[in-house]
Design goal:
- The protein is mainly alpha-helical.
- The longest helix is centred in the middle third of the chain and has 21 residues.
- Helix 2 runs antiparallel to helix 3 and helix 5 packs across helix 6.
- The chain is 55% helix and 10% strand.
- The protein contains eight helices and three strands; from the N terminus they run H-E-H-H-E-H-H-E-H-H-H.
- It folds into two domains: 100 residues, 2-Layer Sandwich (rbstp2171), CATH 3.30.2220; 50 residues.
- This is DUF222 domain-containing protein.
Length: 177
């Protein structure tokens, strides 16, 4: 058995990446919610089991929901992120120090750091800080939180070999207790 050298590790080391889906047609959520309400009402109707009754109405609403979900899926883009090196991350933090008098700034400038981090980590699409700022300003707060949390977890989290219960069940490789 040959002893591994640091050069061997450096030659193989890849930084973690993550894909974050972003729905460009989040406005369709209201339509989806309305269809869900109509479906529940149709399923609760007294004659929902009869073919001539609301059962067929419920089936049509369910089909409308699935069509809407397909439409929404067509408007999802993935933002591909890659973690920075430890030095790149610490340098980025140093370039965005907390502002004096802003108690919500914890270790970094809360106004500028996230956008700069997104621009640095974005692999697809590549973006400048100005473009990242425009993108973030066009998102909802919830969409930004999801994306920013992905940036933070890539750079501040650890990486282990992931485990998938669903995949293990399908291939018969469930760990035994």
């Amino acid at each position: 058995m040959t002893e591994m050298k640091v050069e061997d590790i450096l030659g193989q080391l890849k930084r973690p990446e993550k894909s974050v889906p972003l729905c460009l047609r989040a406005d369709l959520q209201a339509e989806f919610d309305e269809l869900e309400r109509k479906l529940r009402a149709a399923q609760q109707a007294p004659d929902s089991d009869s073919l001539a009754g609301s059962g067929s109405v419920a089936r049509q609403i369910a089909q409308d929901i699935e069509a809407l979900r397909a439409k929404m899926r067509k408007h999802i883009v993935d933002i591909r992120l890659r973690a920075l090196t430890r030095k790149e991350w610490s340098d980025l933090i140093k370039r965005h120090p907390p502002r004096k008098g802003h108690s919500d700034d914890v270790n970094v400038n809360g106004e500028t750091f996230g956008i700069a981090a997104l621009a640095e980590c974005a692999q697809s699409p590549k973006m400048t800080e100005a473009q990242a700022g425009e993108l973030v300003d066009a998102m909802t707060h919830g969409q930004w939180e999801t994306l920013y949390n992905a940036v933070l977890s890539l750079n501040a989290g650890s990486v282990d070999v992931p485990f998938s219960v669903a995949a293990s069940v399908l291939v018969g490789d469930m760990p035994r207790s």
